[in-house]
Amino acid sequence: MNPNKPAQEPGEDPIRAHVFDGIAEYDRRLPNWWLVTLYAGIVFAIIYWMATEHFGRTTNESLVDAEMQRIEAEKLASSASNLDEATLWKMSRNPVFVEAGRATFQSTCASCHNAALTGGIGPSLVDNIWIHGNKPVDVLKTVTDGVAAKGMPAWGPVLGGKKVSEVVAFVLSHQQAP
After folding, report:
1. pTM, entire model
2. What is the set of domains in the chain, with CATH numbers?
3. Which of 14, 20, 89, 99 is most buried per CB count within 10 Å?
């Protein structure tokens, strides 16, 4: 008989062969509920890691880009009182401005100019032929003041300067910048 191994009575769980500082351990299997919890935690951790790191994750770089575009849109909106060609072209390349302009265009202008800007009652806005001038400030003036002779209402008093500049940015986003 091993003096380091404590005696085992019949019917008890087996005791491990090693003893340390006079302490012996039972050689028992872990309970099933504990094993299920352990394995479920491991599976959950793997799925969570895959979901956050690989599938549909918004990267920090894209979050920074979106925030920079929003800041640029705010700067451009604050310069709405001094709209020149360069500012209007910048607005037309900013996704925040273009998306806001798209929403306004769909609700006010699409009935005449079509949702795809291809024309209908009003002229097409995606071709190279512009009736009232082809510069961004000409487009702004046309949208703001309207063209009563052609049946286009003046949208400046109705929408306000910011929304008009957003619509112009949306229209210009479909054109090539000079």
Report:
1. 0.61
2. 15-53 (no CATH), 62-172 (1.10.760.10)
3. 89
Give the residue among 154, 173, 169, 156 at the shortest CA–CA distance from 77: 169
CA distances from 22 to 3, 6, 8, 16, 18 (A): 10, 9, 15, 12, 10
Count, residues in the chain: 178
The DSSP 8-state label assigned to residue 149 in this structure reads G
Q: Which long-range contacts (CB under 8 A, 24 or more apart) does 148-156 make?
A: 150/122, 151/121, 152/112, 152/122, 155/108, 155/109
Whether 76 contacts 87, CB under 8 Å: yes
pLDDT tens digits for range 127-140: 877 888 878 888 88
Per DSSP, helices labelled H in the chain are: 32-53, 60-78, 85-92, 95-108, 110-113, 136-145, 156-159, 161-172
